[in-house]
Amino acid sequence: MTTTATPATDDDQLPRTQQADDPFDRDVLPTPPGATAALLRSLLAPMRSRVTLTTVLLLLQQAAVQAGPLLVAYAIDNAVPALRDHDHGPLIAVAVGYLLCALVSGGLQFAFIEASARVSQDVLLDLRGRIFRHAQALSVDFHERYTSGRLISRSTTDVESLRELLDEGLQELVTVVLSFVYISAMLLWLDLGLGAVALVSFVPLYLLVRLYQRRAGRVYRARSTAIAAVIVKFVETMNGIRPVRAFRREAANDAELAVLNRRHERTNGDALLEMARYVIGSRLVANTAVAAIVLWGAYRVASGSLELGVLAAAVLFLRRLYDPIDRLGMFLNSYQSAAASLEKIAGLLAQTPSVPEPSAPRELPPSKGELPGREVVFDGVRFAYRTGGEVLARFDLTLPAGQTVAVVGSTGAGKSTLAKLLARFYDPSEGRVLLDGVDLRVLAVPELRRGVVMVTQEAFLFSGTVADNIAIGRPDATREEIERAAKAIGAHEFISALPDGYDTDVRKRGGRISAGQRQLVAFARALLADPAVLILDEATSSLDIPGERAVQRAMSTVLRGRTAVVIAHRLSTVEIADRVLVMEHGRIVEDGRPDELIAGTGRFADLHRAWRDSLA
Ligand SMILES: Nc1ncnc2c1ncn2[C@@H]1O[C@H](COP(=O)(O)OP(=O)(O)O)[C@@H](O)[C@H]1O
Ligand SMILES: [Mg+2]
User: Fold this and answer.
1) pTM of the entire structure?
2) Residues with CB under 6 A from ligand 1
């Protein structure tokens, strides 16, 4: 037999960017031992009684099915001789009994399928829910590395392969095991010698099953990794369709996808080959056993030590015994791919958020005074992304409640990192970030969400209406409040001009909204959320100059009383700031009132002069 390709040799053919060093580039995250089994148990535990019921239904159904050969033996050995004495009773009883068994087993099978389908649907519903909830709760750095393509693959292909196991595979397994037990018992009871031959044939069959299981396990794991890689590539390409077009990546992507598709095709072929070897091997064993029994049985019938009916029943039983072996292969198939999938899902579910929810959450102290703003302190904060060097080294900063601070500095200086630490997308590796004296790590999550809101460049809109999108931070807001927020930010005019105004679906035709307009919606959203601390990270970068001017006029209203961190590269924003920080290489190199800094001779004075000249 040829050995099947392992994923390691496949990787050599992939473009460099697809090669995996980081565990996150692989599909299976480190899964704690026993996690897969524990997951399966926890999924099935709530339906223990229903699982028992379905098993009982199957037991009864098998009893009805396996009565057939016994009735045939009775017909040959008793009913036919009785017929010679003109006694029709036994034969009629056999015929009626045979029909009854068929009816009863049909009815039981129906009940079983219904009951087991309900169990499997509930299990899958539960599992999909768990994947979604868990993925949503995981921290931003997890998503940056695991990618949405892998998550999609987990909750579609992998859940689907578990469905196949539950819907078809388990029934097969239970049927096969039950009929093995029933039939062996029947054979032994009918005739010890014939039964023993059948039992001996189980040994090579068992070895065959073990061999198949081991080999197929490897193949199936490789196959599901290959499927996931295709999905990941697909999702990534479509998510990045604009840069793909802009940089003419189509041909390169086609080539990369072709490699991945070929790998998928090859692993599929490997899986089929394994299956074929198994089926051929098992048939060989089965037919050898049948031949042996027919041979030996015929001699014994001739010599009078075995009844013909018993031999007929034994052969019928044997056929029934070996028929399901192909199906056992099918079961092992779906078992292998479900096990591979479940392992991946368990690995995902075993991930813990790197930004965990506090175990003993604290509330913020009551606000001092009328204004919503709160004090922000960075206390000796160090921070490094998982991949890469330290971005902030012993960073100290105090923003008094209600201050508007503009942060400027070159690209890569660490401005966005500062913002993300303040919004607790990440936790510092050392030191603390405090909101009114409370460490963000112990602050109750709803308090944090209400307290700190960040508007970024991306300004993502969810499907739904414009009004829904503005109200995301405050779903209970009235239409009046939503419009007031939009008006304050200067978004009311363009929204009113949309086909259905505030009720325009942002994903539908005619609801198309430009990048700048999206940013205005994001501003209105932040304003409506009414946070104590508002962070704007290049949030006006998609606006044209008049648009930005309009936002700036609105800004004084929006920011009034709040603590605000405004990161911008257009220095016009600085005019509304109480304080300017210039950041370089993760440090604050200048800190002061805008007019002071402009009048001085530092970095900001240079930047400001250059910017003024560029406007002229
Ligand atoms: N998600 C990330 N993973 C790893 N490194 C990052 C990540 N985001 C930013 N960095 C790195 O951190 C440094 C600071 O980035 P950032 O805070 O985004 O700078 P700025 O917003 O000032 O342009 C850069 O060197 C950047 O490469
Ligand atoms: Mg940035």
Assistant:
1) 0.76
2) 144, 385, 387-388, 391, 409, 411-417
